[in-house]
Amino acid sequence: MTRLAALALASLLAAPAGAADLIYGNWTPAREYQNVNVMPEAFRMIEKETGGAIKWKLVPGGQLADAKATFAAVKDGLMQGGLAIVTYSPNVIPSVYAIYSTLIFGADDPVAASGAAMEAMYLHCPSCLEEVRKLNAVALGGWVSSSYVLACREPVKTLADLKGKRIRATAGGAEMFKLAGAVPIGATLTEAVSLLQRGGMDCQFGITDWLRSFGYGDFTKYVMDYPLGMSGPALGLYLNRDTWKGFTPEQRKVHLKAGAWMMAKMAIGNFIVANEEGLKTLIKDKGVRRRQGRGGFRHHPGGVQEGRARA
Hints:
Helices cover 42% and strands 15% of the residues. The strands form 2 sheets. Strands 1, 2, 3, 4, 5 and 11 form a 6-stranded mixed beta sheet that branches. It is built from 11 helices and 12 strands. The chain is an alpha/beta fold.
């Protein structure tokens, strides 16, 4: 190696980790709320507050890793950050999966639920943090979505109607539907699209805005107007630990701030505002119909009356 080449290599190795562009790979579609309204703004915030030293590039649509492979991709440095949802790989972070498997009934407050879930993970679950550390990662923020509802190809009005239905559901939701005689399918949110299209699945279990952003509303025309629990946390700013270690203390503070902003934007902007607007749009433009649950479904304060959009 020439002396000039050696000096160039030494210069590259000595450069701060934040000097190069970093990659955030997301497996959700490019038009999904997080990719359109959240991460671009969070990354602009980071670039501005680090004086341009750290620039993040968003790569959506699973181009680098799908939902199941995200943990390995971040661990190995294929991408420096991503959206990590443990229900698709429950053995990767089993302690976080235990939190995610708990369904919250009786209220539809994603702001309070997101704070509670992240508090449980950060302050009361040392094994959660240790398992993330062993994966060479750092989790800087997450959220709990609004209450999930059933969206089906055919009307589901009673508990008995669930028997034999093939429903995309994971963690606590899957166990709940097993008790009702349904068949839970552990597909990811993106995999569910083709399953619904081909008739390999009867229902999607999730928030109403996903009918719009993932395209489920083209196939699931009947939405049960009854909340069936909240779960989380999704880890929205899941970073490679080596990358994190390369940041200066001030750059870490900027990322922590961005993670907190991301959490609030998802909880309020996506799971309250966009969720309500999305259902109204689907009813108007896609012919989606809202149906109230009865015959075994008990009403509770989280329910809503016919003719009102869910928040």
